[in-house]
Amino acid sequence: MIQEFKDFIAKGNVMDMAVGIIIGAAFTAIVTSLVSDLINPIIAIFTGGIDFSGWFYALDGNEYASLKAAQDAGAPVFAIGNFIMAVINFLIVAFVVFMLVKMVNRVKDAAVKPKEAAPAAPAGPSELDVLLEIRDALKR
Question: What is the mean pLDDT of the segment spanning 52-76?
Answer without folding.
Answer: 88
